[in-house]
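so im writing up the methods section and need the Sulfate transport system permease protein CysW record in one place, dumping it here so i stop losing it
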Amino acid sequence: MSLNTSSNALAEKLQSRDATREPLVVRNILIAIALIFFLACLILPLILVFVEAFKQGMGVYFEALINPDTLSAVKLTLITAAIAVPLNVVFGVAAAWCVAKFNFRGKAILTTIIDMPFSVSPVIAGLMLVLIFGTQGWMGGWLMENDIKILYATPAIVIATIFITVPFVARELIPLMEAQGTEEEEAAIVLGASGWQTFFKVTLPNIKWGLIYGVILCNARAMGEFGAVSVVSGHIRGETNTLPLHVEILYNEYTFSAAFAVSSLLALLAIVTLILKTWVEYRQEKLNRSQQDSSV
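--- predicted struct ---
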């Protein structure tokens, strides 16, 4: 009886595997479509950026990179990322801690607010800042009376970048913290640890790879943001242009080699981000495997 039952179970398992296994021709077609899409939409444009950047020689390439306007755009981009990313790390960790570790009234509202930049167009986000800080905006009159300049200056660019990049750290940490639960934190508190000691000694080591992953994505988006920054920057050459805006200006002026040269900097940033992202995913997967093996 048991032999017949095991045989039937094995037959059903093999049948279910065969039912979900696509024919070889179908698999090859799907793989070919995926490869063509990957090459046409990702690899080929990336190659063309570098080909066009070096088309007129190394001299023209480096001349475009050391141009004062380019250096100003690089400086502003780095300053913006240096301010926006740490602030979003602090907010993202705090928000993820609250959402994942505590139950409170308004939790769903907080989660919705975190996801808002994903659903709002960056251009709309820039227009919202114009309505707030513009001369005809809610705070425009007060800002002009006190000689405070936010719109069409670095503060507006930083604020727009912070708004757009808010979800990246929090959204990486919330599911990770929820999966880890609260048992270790509760044990630390029972043993006499304070809230900060629990965070730095227990929570932070457990989320470090997820945090690094979120920081990488947040930094990449901060440096590559175009829509919201374009609205609030004023496009003042050499002052309020980040790298993406500078590329647009060069391209509109038909200086294609310079535009592609500056674009190559953003492409290199994307490649470095992809490498770091892959490395962090590998380390996190390796850590998860080791934890599963230790639990077994």
